[in-house]
């Protein structure tokens, strides 16, 4: 996805209220309502990338909470705008970082000198858009029931977008044409959980039985399956998330620009996960006003 297309995608997500928030310092603004930005995606993207926009819309405090602007005033920003600005802020945060904390266990961190790889990930406009869309998509989580036939009998099963094991069960129930969408969402939930809730994934997300089910759903066999089943849950979901993104791309009849970005992220899954780790630690799960609650809470 080139920069011009990514700019148009940003514009399509933003509300009129978002544009009003972005307009005041935008060059050439007439009337201050920001409507002109929708027709000039390049200018809109420049405004989002301006380091000063974060402070204007969300406030300069590290722990700016849900919709809290300067001085504690609530702002009428959409989740997508807030996440887009936070992802952009991560690029600023990491610009001069020598290392970034990495998880070695629940609430355990060690410095890992891979900040250049994370900066490279965030340097691409389409990948930043991908992360903002991902986060916004999990502000509301779909769940429900579906029917399958087991041993000749109809049975009802539940699914939730925050439960990769139950979500993978949909692969046996949906028509073949809908499976790429399920694989894509499996990649999304793998990235979201390992990125935003790594401690939950490490401690409670997957037991041996659930790990086995996911590996079977992914079609993995042999030594690779045994290694992943015995390893850390984050490593398992990293591998499966990348695999599911690639499978979605392979099974979709028409390769779109969006799918090309998903395929690109599949090859950089760990960097994407670690960018989200940074955002979760510093912004998304800020004390007092977390954007997301842990699964099952």
Please write out the topology.
Elements: H1 3-13, H2 16-22, H3 35-38, H4 41-49, H5 51-58, H6 79-94, E1 100-105, E2 108-112, H7 115-122, H8 125-137, E3 143-150, E4 153-160, H9 164-169, H10 179-196, H11 198-205, H12 208-217, H13 222-230, H14 233-251, H15 257-266, H16 269-284
Antiparallel strand pairs: 1-2, 3-4
Helix pairs in contact: 1-4, 5-6, 6-7, 6-8, 7-16, 10-11, 10-14, 10-16, 12-13, 14-15
Which key terms come to mind for this protein?
297 residues; mainly alpha; two-stranded antiparallel ribbon; 9% strand; globular
Give the strand order of the largest sheet, numbering strands 1, 2, ... along the chain.
1-2
Q: Mind telling me the C-alpha Rg? A: 20 Å
In which range does the helix fraction lie? Answer: 55-70%
Instruction: Compute the average pLDDT.
Output: 83
State the major sheet. 2 strands, antiparallel
Label the structural class: mainly alpha
User: Could you state the order of secondary-structure elements as H and E?
Assistant: HHHHHHEEHHEEHHHHHHHH
């Amino acid at each position: 996805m080139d920069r011009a297309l990514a700019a148009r995608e940003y514009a399509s997500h933003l509300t009129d209220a978002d544009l009003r928030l972005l307009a005041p310092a935008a060059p050439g603004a007439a009337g201050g309502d920001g409507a002109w930005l929708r027709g000039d995606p390049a200018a809109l993207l420049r405004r989002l990338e301006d380091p000063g926009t974060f402070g204007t819309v969300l406030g300069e405090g590290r722990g700016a909470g849900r919709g809290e602007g300067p001085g504690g005033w609530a702002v009428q920003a959409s989740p997508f705008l807030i996440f887009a600005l936070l992802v952009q802020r991560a690029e600023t945060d990491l610009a001069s970082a020598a290392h970034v904390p990495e998880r070695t266990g629940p609430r355990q961190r060690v410095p890992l000198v891979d900040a250049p790889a994370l900066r490279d990930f965030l340097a691409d406009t389409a990948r930043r858009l991908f992360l903002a869309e991902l986060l916004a998509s999990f502000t509301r989580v779909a769940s429900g029931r579906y029917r399958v036939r087991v041993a000749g009998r109809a049975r009802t099963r539940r699914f939730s977008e925050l439960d990769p094991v139950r979500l993978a069960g949909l692969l046996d129930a949906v028509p073949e044409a809908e499976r790429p969408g399920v694989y894509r969402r499996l990649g999304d939930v793998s990235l979201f959980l390992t990125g935003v809730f790594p401690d939950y994934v490490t401690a409670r997300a997957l037991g041996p039985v659930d790990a086995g089910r996911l590996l079977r759903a992914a079609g993995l066999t042999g030594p690779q399956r045994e290694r992943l089943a015995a390893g850390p849950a984050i490593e398992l979901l990293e591998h499966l998330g990348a695999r599911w993104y690639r499978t979605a791309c392979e099974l979709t009849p028409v390769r779109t620009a969006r799918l090309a970005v998903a395929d690109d992220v599949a090859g950089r899954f760990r960097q994407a996960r670690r960018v989200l780790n940074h955002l979760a630690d510093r912004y998304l799960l800020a004390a007092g006003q977390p954007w997301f609650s842990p699964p099952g809470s």
